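Run Ferric siderophore reductase C-terminal domain-containing protein through structure prediction, thanks.
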Amino acid sequence: MSSIVMNELKTFDIHVEHERVTEIEIIDLLNEEKCLSFLRTQMIEIKAPSLSVTASMLSKRYAYLVVSSTLYSMVEFNCALHLPVKACALSKERTLCIQAGMCKWQEVKSMERETWRENVLRTLFSSHITPVLNILKKTSGVSSSILWENVAIRINSIYRKTLAKEMDSVKMERLNSDFHFLENASGDLFNLKENPLKQYLKIGEELIINPCRKTCCLYYKLEKDVKGISHCGNCPIKNKKIKARIHTMNEIK
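Sure, done. The structure for Ferric siderophore reductase C-terminal domain-containing protein is below.
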């Protein structure tokens, strides 16, 4: 991999394996017993009250590492790093450690971009993200809806941040095309019956008008953040409380 590529990856906390001490191989995370043990350790580390809260927080982090980095590369470079499960691990600091020799840089080259994109995203989701979320659900009991919306908010966020930059028309077209492809993909892309992201994906004006989530990621159940943050900015519970307060104030008037 070129130094330019690696520098870009490091902004998403992706490092070549020798640069970090690994905590768990992702292939081991897919083992129920090992996943449960890892979640119990993480629960203590992040001071979570339950395995379900721990799994939700882990899924948000993992989606940033693997999904956000891939989608950003697709728009920015028209390339994507193949991240097979067997080549990935998590460090104690929850960064992604990869075996560089197993992670090939996938370029469009002579292939039609639509065909290339489908191949990249099918591998990403059906062979990597879906199995990881499935084992987190099985071992922690957290709902699939929460886990998949955690992935969706990372997608919404990376596209929102990318759109906020000055982009040329070609990259803008790629971004919008990739978003709509994900939104309208069949469940087969994820190795599921239905598209688990569809109802949670938002872009542009829709995200500005309605930024709130449909499910709660359970962040508010963690011990209060040192910065005093008790809820996510797009928390549906916080939003309901605000609406209820406004409604009460209007009634008093």
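Strands lie at 14-16, 22-25, 79-81, 88-91, 96-98, 105-107.
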